[in-house]
Amino acid sequence: MGTGRTGTIGRRGGSTLMELVLVAAILAVLAGIASPRYGSAIARYQVEMSAKRVAADLEYASNRARTSSSSLTVTFTPGSNQYQMAGVPDLRDPSSDYTVVLTDSPFRCSLTSASFGTDANVVFDGYGVPDSGGTVVVTRGSYQKTVALNAETGKAEVE
Q1: How far apart are alpha carbons 143 and 14 in whole angstroms?
Q2: Which pLDDT value is given to residue 5?
Q3: Using an 8 Å Cβ cutoff, are 125 and 106 in contact?
Q4: Strands lying side by side in the sheet with 143-149
Q5: Model's pTM, two decimal places?
Q6: I need a labelling partner for 132 at 20 to 30 A (CA). Which of 60, 74, 96, 147 fits?
Q7: Distance, CA of 148 to CA of 159 (rounded, Å)
Q8: 70-123, pLDDT tens digit by residue?
Q9: What is the CA radius of gyration of the chain?
Q10: How sure is the predictor about 20, in pLDDT bands with cuts at 50, 70 and 90?
Q11: What is the DSSP string of 10-78?
Q12: Mean pLDDT of all residues in 122-133
């Protein structure tokens, strides 16, 4: 602090209570605007990642069937939001079958439908070719992604 030209001590710089309340109000409005957009972006991201996981696992099942020269079944259960590969050990619990529950973290999505011909199962033969093509639909809120499995090539793609 120094003295002014008149010899008085100058006022210290600082914020008043009114300025702090105004800044807090502005931050609250900005947070109110950003929060729904952030939640929407997270939901969209989770649906995209869930669909990519399903596609990658279908490719994995095809490759595993081809390398083992034996058939492999992937069973989708929309009622419980999960799918399972019979005879493939789970990464977290090798004593059980490979299972993915889409409502669990990090996906938190729903398995809306799975249709492969007449049922929700797809069987890859010893050459990695599926018994039928089909689709898997994953949703979260208003966001939805479809995974399509090509019957001839066994390739899965997110649409």
Answers
A1: 48
A2: 56
A3: no
A4: 110-115, 134-140, 143-149, 156-158
A5: 0.78
A6: 96
A7: 7
A8: 999 999 999 999 999 999 999 888 999 999 999 999 999 999 999 998 899 999
A9: 27
A10: confident
A11: PPPP---HHHHHHHHHHHHHHHHHHHHHHHHHHHHHHHHHHHHHHHHHHHHHHHHHHHHTS-EEEEEEG
A12: 94
CATH class for the domain made up of 17-158: alpha beta
Q: How confident is the model at residue 13 (pLDDT cuts 50, 70, 90)?
A: low
State the Cα–Cα distance between residues 159 and 152, nearest whole angstrom: 18
Q: What confidence score (pLDDT) does residue 46 get?
A: 95
> Residue 2: what are its φ and ψ, rounded to 5°?
-130, 175
Q: What CA–CA distance (Å, rounded) separates 131 from 76?
A: 15
Residue-range domain boundaries for the chain:
17-158
Distance CA(86)–CA(127), nearest Å, equals 17
Q: Find tokens 């898997």 and name the residue.
A: 136
Six-digit token string for 70: 């034996």
Q: Are strands 97-101 and 143-149 parallel, antiparallel or unpaired?
A: unpaired
As a whole number of angstroms, the distance between CA 77 and CA 100 comes to 10
